[in-house]
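Notebook p. 47: complex prediction with iron/sulfur cluster.
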Amino acid sequence: MSFINIIVTSASYDIIRYDECIVYLITVYTFILALPIINEDWNMPWVNKKKCVSCKKCVKRCPVDAIDMVKGKALITDDKCIYCGKCVKVCPVKAILKDREFVELRIRDNLKALKGPLSRNKGKNARKRMIKSRIRQLRKQQKVIRGTIRELKQIT
Ligand code: SF4
Ligand code: SF4
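Predicted complex, structure tokens below:
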């Protein structure tokens, strides 16, 4: 059984509609595409500004003063952070996410944005074309990100 077959089989238990099944596949595909990039800084924390309630607990807890309050929201300075995870644990509203959680959140946001146009498009072939086009766009973006990272490594 191929890898894609395994994904389709596992998806078919709770996803019946064709477009939702495709969305599920894109989620897995996008995550696989992102893996080589996100593995490098797997523990880098991110602040979800919408959730931050400005309590400053993370600021006080950070051992290297990597967090400041900017316009009432916590902001992490990447090059000071030592990835200890203390801010993630202390935040009372779970506004600080680990890399893995942040990437999954962004994937879900991307898919939510794609689901609307997909559901409005009734034709199966039109939906397939829309999905293929989005995958092509993602591949282009991936090439740009990889190329930029490669060039940045040359600079040092
Ligand atoms: S992970 Fe540790 S070092 Fe990085 S911002 Fe959070 S508390 Fe500070
Ligand atoms: S601990 Fe959480 S809610 Fe409090 S300032 Fe930091 S990110 Fe915002």
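Notes: The two ends are 45 Å apart (CA to CA). Residues 1-16, 35-41 have pLDDT under 50 and may be disordered.
Next step: compare against the earlier run before touching the bench.
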